Amino acid sequence: MVREVIAVDEFGQNRTLFIPAERALTIYVDKRELVTLMTLGAHPEWLVLGYLRNQRLIENLAEIESITVDWDVGAAAVKTRQGISDIEKRTEKRVVTSGCGQGSLFGDVLDAFDGIKLPEAKVTQSQLEDITDTIRLQDSIYKQAGSVHGCALFSISGKSAEKLVFVEDVGRHNAIDTIAGWMWLQDEAVHGQDKVFYSTGRLTSEMVMKAAQMGVPIVVSRSGMTEMGLALALQLNLCAIGRATNKRFLCFSAPDRVQWQTRTIAA
After folding, report:
1. Contact residues for 175 (Cβ-Cβ < 8 A; gap 6+)
2. What is the C-alpha to C-alpha distance for residues 230 and 217, in angstroms, rounded to an integer?
3. How many CA atoms lie within 13 A of 39 on its CB side?
4. What is the DSSP letter of 63?
5. Cα-flanking dihedrals φ and ψ of residue 114, to 5°?
6. Cα angle 157-159-164, degrees, rounded to a multiple of 5
7. pLDDT tens for each residue of 189-245
8. Read out DSSP for 100-168?
């Protein structure tokens, strides 16, 4: 997933370093071309599943008969059992989002949020510290090569936050789709009720939408938040936490989902 290259620094000296090796993956559903994603390709089946789920094209895992990935031609062929009804109409309107590498959402996804009710959940400040510490210590492509985003899913069912899965990709929308696919494959063993979603990238409307569709009521980022992302988080009563590093963070929405601890403000 990384490639060794030679670059010339400001002193005119050659330096050997690593850069992420992204690849194009075109998704075909029942032989119909759907979309091409630029990805590191670590877990292509998870990515495809999560993409279809978050685009609301597939509602049940049983609808899919098979997924075949062929990197020689850069394609993922999805075969469904009965086809996707009105797929042409459902995919004709596309909204280009602010996701890295130009993420996109099909138009009908934007109309589906009135019916979403997120589960009750609270996160403690010590669990937030567990999350930031875990990410800080995580072996990653970012530490080796930079230029990627990382996303993770944590369980907060116990006293400490437990990392369940960590994914890196060239775009944060790919990383969250991959985690959504992983969750789906776990069936009922992994749901969003006692989970926190973490992203190294900013919390945009797309990230909030996808977290909500996964049933995850708390999202955390080491970066900031956009205006539309905040508006959606407030509408959904989703707890959005940004600028999370070490013991510091900013809660932008649903502060009632945080179990606050008494802290001394440094002089």
Report:
1. 149, 150, 151, 167, 168, 169, 199
2. 14
3. 27
4. G
5. -65, -30
6. 50
7. 578 889 999 999 999 988 998 999 899 999 999 999 999 899 999 999 999 999 999
8. TTT-EEEGGGGG--TT--PPP--EEHHHHHHHHHHHHH---HHHHH-S-EEEEEEE-SSSS-EEEEEEE
